[in-house]
Design goal:
The chain has helices at 24-34, 38-45, 74-81, 104-113, 130-134, 136-140, 145-158, 174-187, 204-221, 232-238, 256-261, 266-272, 277-280, 283-286, 308-315, 337-343; strands at 9-20, 48-59, 63-67, 89-94, 97-98, 115-118, 192-196, 224-229, 241-246, 249-254, 298-303, 322-327, 330-336. The protein has 357 residues and is α/β, with parallel strands linked by helices. Strand 7 (192-196), helix 9 (204-221) and strand 8 form a beta-alpha-beta unit.
Amino acid sequence: MLSGMDSGAKIAIRNLYKVFGVDPQRALKALKEEGLGKPELLERYNHVLGLQDINVDVKYGEITVIMGLSGSGKSTLIRHVNRLIDPTAGEIIFEGRDILGCSNEELRKIRREQMSMVFQNFALLPHKTVAENAALALEVRGFSRDEYIPEAEKWLDRVGLQGYAASHPHQLSGGMQQRVGIARALTSNADIMLMDEAFSALDPLIRTDMQDLLLELQQELQKTILFITHDLDEALKLADHLVILKDGRIIQQDEPQTILLEPSDPYIVDFVSDINRARVLRVRSVMDEIKPTGDINIAGEIDQEENLESIITLAQGDTRKTYLVMDGTRKVGILRMETLIKSLIPTEASDDGMRSH
C-alpha cells in the first residue's frame, strides 16, 4: 500500500494538480515556484488552473461530497477519479494502487465493473427500454439478456419504478429518468458511485425526493459515493465528509457539522451564513458529553442524530429544558436548550487553518 493512504480510504487523491494549456508542466513549475493563484497564472502564462494540490480520502461506505460554485474545479476533479481526465501531477490511489499506472484494458475493466457514474443529464439511450438502459453495464460485460433484465427490474422496483421496465425514456418525467440512472448504477453492482450534479436538473421537490432516496439506499447498501454539487443545502444533507472548493483549491474539508460550527476561512463563513442551522445541525454536535447528575431535571430522551429543529419543536421553545441524549440504548450526554439556542448563532472563522480529513 502506498504511503500516506488512509486505511479506510477506497480512493485516496494525493497532491493532485491540473493545469489546462499548451505547456502545463512549465505553467505548473511557475505556479509552485512563484506562488501564483488562478488569476495570475492565466494573466502571466495564459494557462488555466483547474486543480491545485488536492488531497482527499474517499472512505469506504461513505458519501464524500465535493462542493463549490461554477469554476471551482469540482467536475474536473470527479473526472480524474475514473481518468476521463489525466492530471498534470499527483496520484489517484484506488484500492492501494495508483490508477494513473493502469493500462487501457485495466482502466476499461475498472470503469465497467467497479465504478458507475450518474450524470446530470440522465444519459439514457432513447431507443432502449428503461430496463435495457438500467442493464447497460451488465450487457456490456457480456451477461445474457435472461440474466441482466431481471437484475435491472429488481433495481428499478427498488427505486420506485415498478411497471416501467418496458417503457422508453421519453415516456418518463425528469425525476423518473434520474431514477433510471440510479438503478443503472446499482444494477452494475459497482462498489463506487460517481455522481456529477446528479440532481441539479430536477425541480426542487423532486430533487428532495431523490436525495431522500439516495440516503435510504445508502443506509442499506453502504456504497462508496463521490457526489458533486454546487448546492450547499444538498451537500450538508448528503455528506459524511464535505470538501469545499474555490478556484481549484480546497478551502476546508471535514464533517458537515464541524464545518458549520468551526468554519476555517472567511469564505466558508460567508458561504454558510444563510443556512438553516437548526435543520442541519445534529444533537451530537452541540450536546455536553457528560452524564446527568441528580440535580438536573431531565425533560425526556432524544436521539443523538435528531436535528435541532425537531428538538426546538419538542421543547415548545422552552429554553429551561434539558434532555438526555441517547445513542440507541446508550446514554451519551445531555442537551440543554440554552446551549442549543446559542449554537444557532453563526460562527466566526476559526484560527486553526484548513481542516483535513
